[in-house]
């Protein structure tokens, strides 16, 4: 057992665990006690961690303190490991959907999605959003209609966009740090080509001429893919577009540049010592969240109606909630990972950030992966949002102890949002118990960390540590300390959680929770050069994110209000595998009701 050991947890068989509201399962709130560390203290901590013997002792104590050893590494778990979060196709009935033909192109799927949209409710719902340089937060349909009528052109829009990016990034100015790379010549070339298509009356789709930002974890020519570092772009050459980017390009979208991100995705704040720290447009002194920080901020600011992110541990949904936009993480396997940095094979995938649910639907329809053989490919249902109001018998599973483990403003706002859905749609909240939430968070942490260091090993072995940011060096040191036993036990916990969630989905359509435990917190000057170690806020931010990644489940977040400081609050819906259409329906209903919440 060793000097620092404590008794390990002995798990009972998953089938014996009570998932009802009266369950005696004990809810563990994250046991995080470490104070925030930044600046010189981060550097000292890194030097200690990287000392051969002392560092190993410190890491062991840290893992003991946050219960990784007790709940994961040394635990006695009866289930075998489950190594991936993939799901076989299940024909789960969904209400008010349009089944698309399997052989449609990306542009044809976009046309199908546009046909599912309701009247122009979306334009009024985006009205309170902060924007850069007076830009109204236009939707995809706003752009398509303006291009069609001749009110404006993609060239004019791109010109204004580039001016806004330049202004927001200027030294001594707002310093929003939206992008790592943005090539004005490439943006204008795309805009000119789109303008010509519109002038000929032959746009490729509703996305033709619409600006889309791409997280710098996804390949997008002509840019290098840095992963938020200053070295990876040269070590791993980008040779073309990722699959999801190629589909957007085929629809005529203007790829606006590579959005900023937390270095290697190894953090929740979006603070990046190499490329600047993306700021929250609601309040530029606050974090945008991570790791898809720039993608969330650029949509929030109204510069792009849609952006791509990558979600390995809430990295799309978390910043979406902090910036008050929609964040979508589909079912594992629904989108292709081709051309995405392989930082976390079994938990990460591309995701969508958008100003409205309607825009999220259009982008989703464009980038779904239809390249698999027909007998393996899941059916693609698109939600007919014009008929969302007629949906009935929707059941929302709520685990009260988990739901309420958030800041008071978030808890109150999200509870009010649920009551609004009940009042206006007659939907039912079902009380359940989701066991071992903290155990799942720690197992996910071991998994994503182990996969990250393994995927980067061929680069890290040849790299000077000084090339890596200080906070990322801490993360990599911790990731590299996980044993094979810890990894295998994490996959056994994955198996348990898959069982628990499948059982819950027998009685409910979705699981509902806040998206984050805290709203966006303040950026502090001492973190800009070194990053920061803020595990208390970090644990609060990821509290509700893990099932979507660890279990490969689809999830969506939509803004439902603000805290007392005016910062956005997001509500999350987690669905059955392949139920993206139902999630988009529910999120649209929530979006339509948001103005009633206050």
UniProtKB/TrEMBL annotation:
All copies of domain Amidase, residue ranges: 179-584
SUPFAM superfamilies: Amidase signature (AS) enzymes (SSF75304)
Top-level lineage group: Eukaryota
Name of the protein described by the UniProt record: Amidase domain-containing protein
